[in-house]
Amino acid sequence: MNTSASQYYGLPYEGLWPDESSPEWMNKGDNAWQLTATTMVGMQSVPGLVILYGGMVKRKWAVNSASTALYAFAMVLLCWVLWAHHMSFGPMLIPLVGKPGFALSETFLLHQSRLGRVPMADFVYYQFVFAAITVILLGGSLLGRMNFYAWMLFVPLWLTLSYTVGAFSVWGNGFLEKYIIDYAGGYVIHLSSGVAGFTAAYWVGPRLSNDRQHFPPNNIIHMLGGAGFLWLGWTGFNGGSPFAANIIASLAILNTHICAATSLLVWVSMDLVVYKKSSVIGAVQGMITGLVCITPGAGIVDPWAAVLMGALSGSIPWYTMMVLHKKSAFFQSVDDTLGVFHTHAVAGVLGGLLSGVLARANLLKMMYSDSVFYAISRGGLKGTLKQTGYQLIGAAFITAWNAIITSLICIFISRIVDLRMNEEDLEIGDDAAHGEEVYALWGDGERTPSTQRRWHMPPRIPSICQRQ
């Protein structure tokens, strides 16, 4: 992932004639794997996070939470091909970001990417699903109260002003590209989403007191289905980063699942020891922290290191979420609905630091060829400590940039539309936000009469009979 932007744009558009859809430079196996891996990542968002969010929240917020993910996926795609891809991976505008531009032309999409023997269209597609899931993940901090109109504005603004800077700085020939190990997005994706989600949650404000104190999932089985898409989809998330069906991809996939399984079991064990019960939601959280933690180093650490990373990702984020969060006035002051800060920001930083310590020099060379600039490649304790320092600097930059830019975006949007739904609509939920409810419990899709609603509020949209 750390290959410089100049390597993506240097090859001429040649060898592709009207009757030749498979030019000599393209490897069909790599191309097939890349398209498959990318689609697996896309399915983590749609339907994965759509189902996970819809099942993990209180019943009255199921439709709104699912639609939050669905809208973001579609909006990010259009923004990505119109300007954001080039801002993330195109020619440098400044050391923080590339020049905006279209990623739509045939001459651009069908020439070879030097990242692998695949068309440039594969790279655009792959990076789009990464960008989309980042925005959707941060949305998990805002469920249960954000005005959907504000979310519609937030998505393109945050993608443009925040995500592109992180992607370009670390992956796209920016100022951190030669120093930071981030194999598949521990910093660019997970730390960004965790910090931005927590920051946005501060500006949007908390859920209703009753919702915050009592927020049971409306469908745990659906939640597990969404979690399954997320877990298995991570095969493409980390396995697709080499842009080739090679041994690094194979190692990354195995390490990914080892770390996730270890983290899940450690999280469940912690719940059993402390609370005397295993929590299904806790198991899902442990799975996620394991997947996040291994992401920065999936293809460049040994399997034994994946076990160690899983043990730490199942215990340290557990402590910050289940113990520190409850004791800290700072954490209590911000309503992070699904605990995205702990599952993604904490686990992302943990994975980034551990990657600096545990990465193998020979695997780094296999992944990055002659572009290895990491101190760790020189070997020895001094090189490892120096690389860990670089990792800390990268984490600090991503954290600061996302906190500042997300705050400015929220302040700007608040001048246009309310960030938070009004109190009356917060009592109602989905019906107020979308005119729909997750389950048709009254007749064949008809609305439940207002007198039977447990919140005892009149319907916002009168029926046809009432209008007549």
TrEMBL record:
It holds the Pfam family Ammonium_transp. The keyword Transport applies. It comes from the Eukaryota. It is found in: Cell membrane; Membrane. The keyword rRNA-binding does not apply. Residues 33-439 form the Ammonium transporter AmtB-like domain. The chain crosses the membrane at residues 32-54, 61-83, 123-143, 150-172, 184-205, 217-237, 243-268, 280-298, 304-325, 337-359, 390-413. GO terms for molecular function: ammonium channel activity. Keywords: Ammonia transport, Membrane, Transmembrane, Transmembrane helix, Transport. One of its GO terms (cellular component) is plasma membrane. It is a multi-pass membrane protein. NCBIfam families: amt. PANTHER family: AMMONIUM TRANSPORTER 2 MEMBER 3 (PTHR43029:SF24), AMMONIUM TRANSPORTER MEP2 (PTHR43029). Belongs to the ammonia transporter channel (TC 1.A.11.2) family. This is Ammonium transporter. It comes from Morus notabilis.
